[in-house]
Amino acid sequence: MSRTGLGQFGVMPPTVVREPTRDGEDIQICPECGHPVVKSKGSQRIEKPDLVHVALAAAFDVLVTFGWRCQRHPYEIVMPMRVGGDDASAFVDGWTGVEIRFSDEHIRHVATPEREVTEHVE
Ligand SMILES: [Zn+2]
Q1: 2 CA from centroid of ligand 1 (Å)
Q2: Average pLDDT, stretch 46-74?
Q3: CA distance linking residue 34 with residue 14, whole number of Å
Q4: What is the pLDDT of residues 33-53, one digit of tens each?
Q5: Distance, CA 33 to ligand 1 centroid (Å)?
Q6: How is residue 86 annotated by DSSP?
Q7: 111: closest CA among 12, 16, 60, 90?
Q8: Å from CA of 14 to ligand 1 middle
Q9: What spacing in Å lies between the alpha carbon of 30 and ligand 1's midpoint?
């Protein structure tokens, strides 16, 4: 059996994770194509997240986060909302911050449901 074309067997390529960007009119846009992504705001899935915390990295094939996505590319682009640190509860109750390496190699905190983290790591 051919090993190519894994997508058709449900194996997703890693999601491209980019920092949220706004244009001159303060509208949320995709950093790659400049298309407004305001309407995509909500829960997003990051396939094969590059998590900094080793225990988390081993536990997560898919990370749920909150932010925007752009679907105008042959790959998924997710732009997680920026959170200040480990405590994301100021942003949404019951969510926590985890460190993830973005596609530009910078490490930032993104929000994820706290329940997912405790279930995976304990
Ligand atoms: Zn785009």
Answers
A1: 31
A2: 93
A3: 21
A4: 999 999 999 999 999 999 999
A5: 4
A6: S
A7: 90
A8: 16
A9: 5
Nearest to 76 by CA among 114, 23, 30, 109: 30
How close are the terminal C-alpha atoms of the chain, in Å? 38
Q: How far, in Å, from the CA of 72 to the mean position of ligand 1?
A: 5
Q: What does pTM read for this prediction?
A: 0.83
Q: What confidence score (pLDDT) does residue 84 get?
A: 75
User: What SS3 string covers 40-59?
Assistant: HCEEEEEECCCECCHHHHHH
% of residues, the chain, pLDDT over 70: 83
pLDDT of 1 reads 44
pLDDT score, position 3: 47
User: What residues have CB less than 8 Å from 103, skipping those under 6 apart?
Assistant: 16, 17, 18
Number of residues assigned to the chain: 122
- Helix or strand holding residue 24 (H, E): none
